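Internal ticket #5521
Category: modeling
Description: The requester needs a full-assembly model to guide mutagenesis choices. All entity lines are attached below as received. Residue total reported by intake: 430.
Assigned to: D.W.
Attached entities:
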Amino acid sequence: MKKSILLITAALLAAGCCDTVNDEQPMCPTTAEATISTIMNRKSVRSFTGEAVADSTITQLLRAAMAAPSGRNIQPWHYVVLRDTTRYTAIFGESNFNLPIFKAAAAVVVFCADTTVTAPPRDNPQAEAVTRPNGLWRDDLGASTENFLLAAEAVGLGAVWTALYPYPERYMPVKEALLLPDNVVPYCAVPLGVPTGNDQPKDKWKPERVHYERW
Amino acid sequence: MKKSILLITAALLAAGCCDTVNDEQPMCPTTAEATISTIMNRKSVRSFTGEAVADSTITQLLRAAMAAPSGRNIQPWHYVVLRDTTRYTAIFGESNFNLPIFKAAAAVVVFCADTTVTAPPRDNPQAEAVTRPNGLWRDDLGASTENFLLAAEAVGLGAVWTALYPYPERYMPVKEALLLPDNVVPYCAVPLGVPTGNDQPKDKWKPERVHYERW
């Protein structure tokens, strides 16, 4: 009997449930494996089940969005979370071909940017703050949007980046409808929801795009 | 004796080594937890140990970079991997204040973009392909750069996004030194290496940046 229970214990161990990949995690994919699988599995999701998404989940994704790198750490981003589908046509304009996707999603997050920065001149940190254009806001918003899309993929939700900027016919109606200040521009609109599973990631690997030392 | 071994077995189970967070993974952080921790832990790393990074690792990070979303799936990105530090001053120009960081890194990846697209007019897919500006290349490059930075963080490496575009005094010397075609612009330079641990992530969460339904 003792022997049989030892065998059970041995089997438990052999099954690997206490086998260690590293010191911390029994049988776990590494953070690298999990993160890179999320990056490779992220896809543009345009088909949603219609299920709701909790505000707390959206907040978690926005925390990820605000963790993006920012030129000179200016953090120009703002986010407008939309749920009232009755306003979507007025906000985005009837010509926005993504309206049906927006209306099928649980929410649409409009990524916005303050295109200005108010600070002392770079060459004179002691001087009075002045307001000037921030040349890197668009890059910060791109990184912030990608963080949001990856966090959505990671928690099992679907989203798709739909461009507003640099197209005035797309972003100006949104700027007006959302009552954005003069210095704030709507960058993109990201519908978020529970994916149906219809959308799949693309394999975009092109080794010829990698060059060494020169073109 | 049987009892004591049962207790050992019970203790093994109570220790949780076979406790399941979900059906697949005993005791594992979820993909969501791992991915979001990578996003929140990513930091701008400017201090490197000087250790080398394998080409295969850089390739893995570039696979992640090319998995970024791309407007109309144009995928405008190209990457130039630099290791020959003797050329860095000539490539980036003596005025680039990031030169010391570049020289301390294991490699510098210059993210580049084809700013044009050659395809039939959108309103006439049957017509002959024409070359025109791609209005979304900068957004695609921002997402691609963030994927690379997150993949680097995930595998335990450090990197930092240093802007070249939109500053001609920074990107023109690089464009010339790397022999880039007329339609290709250097977007940013990302030094990559083994971090010393000196650099830490910033908490950028600002709930006041989240708006609901309108500004």
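Resolution: model delivered.
Comment from assignee: Helices of chain B lie at 2-14, 31-41, 55-65, 88-92, 99-104, 137-154, 168-177.
Ticket closed.
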